[in-house]
Write a structure and sequence with these properties.
Blueprint: H1 3-28, H2 34-73
């Protein structure tokens, strides 16, 4: 993956965090319907999925850098 991929993931995460805040504000305004609660849970799950994808991308980049360093030392 590229820096462009990381940028897309970070933008997606930012959008989801904003959506989570909107859901939380609705709940704080006494909208404790199952739909409002379900929405915030679903958004939180989506944030966790994006976080995992970001971690995978960062790890892949680290692994690639380490492999390149190993090749340079051989």
């Amino acid at each position: 993956m590229s820096d462009e991929d990381l940028k897309h993931l970070m933008n997606a995460r930012e959008a989801l965090v904003q959506k989570r805040l909107t859901c939380a504000q609705a709940i704080a305004a006494n909208d404790t319907s199952d739909n409002a609660i379900r929405s915030i849970v679903e958004v939180q799950r989506a944030i966790e999925v994006v976080d995992y994808a970001i971690e995978e991308l960062e790890q892949a980049e680290l692994d690639e850098e380490l492999a390149e360093d190993d090749e340079d030392h051989d």
